[in-house]
Amino acid sequence: QKEVEQDPGPLSVPEGAIVSLNCTYSNSAFQYFMWYRQYSRKGPELLMYTYSSGNKEDGRFTAQVDKSSKYISLFIRDSQPSDSATYLCAMSAGAGSYQLTFGKGTKLSVIP
Amino acid sequence: GAVVSQHPSRVICKSGTSVKIECRSLDFQATTMFWYRQFPKQSLMLMATSNEGSKATYEQGVEKDKFLINHASLTLSTLTVTSAHPEDSSFYICSASYAGRQPQHFGDGTRLSIL
């Protein structure tokens, strides 16, 4: 079993839809959880960052972490064509000097 | 927000050439920087961890003599691909974190093509 599992998609939704992206993990030591958005031929851009369990909201984005289930989610409300990208979940057991473990990424297309 | 600058964004060169890629943290001091490699439609693969003032730590299977890393200051780490060959063609990305804390911030990557 891989440390982090993420459905690679592709996922296509109509503009305005609510998008749900998920990752599961097996390492109970993970305590820092991040979602990155990566456009084609660009580096990953930090979207959401959560420490330990709980929810975090930023504009149209909501991140949820359930450590008891080892499950994290990213919700995108009122999706826009500009949200079309690959979304990577990443997690770490320690602070910034600790390496990140990434999911494979989910490719999202928002159709106008 | 935090900005990590990576340069150059695109390199095309002949086989046997050495190529240097720079990663700079523009508005914070980065004691640790990471270097990744990404193949098409795949996730990021960690190559090495670069610590300011000390030797880099390489992941298993990454040749340290092939991929030279220097982290001489708190704002600059460099990756040099020595005697590059076509199989070294890839997308190389660096990341940095402020004062060793999460989260990490990424550069925009360098697309390396070896002919």
Question: Can you give a write-up of this model?
Answer:
The complex is a heterodimer of chains A (112) and B (115). With 112 residues, chain A is an all-beta fold. Chain A contains no helices and eleven strands. Chain A starts with a strand and ends with a strand. The N and C termini of chain B lie far apart (37 Å). The mean pLDDT of chain B is 91. Classes of the chains: A mainly beta (112), B mainly beta (115). At the A-B interface, strand 4 and strand 5 of A face strand 5, strand 9 and strand 10 of B.
> How would you name the oligomeric state of the polypeptide chains in this document?
heterodimer
Q: What is the CA-atom radius of gyration of chain B, in angstroms?
A: 13 Å
Major protein interface: A-B, 23 and 29 residues
> How would you state the average pLDDT of chain B, rounded?
91
Q: What is the CA-CA span between the terminal residues of chain B?
A: 37 Å
Characterize the biggest β-sheet of chain A.
6 strands, mixed
In whole angstroms, how far apart are the ends of chain A?
Answer: 37 Å
Approximate strand percentage of chain A: over 45%
Instruction: Please report the number of helical segments of chain B.
Output: 0
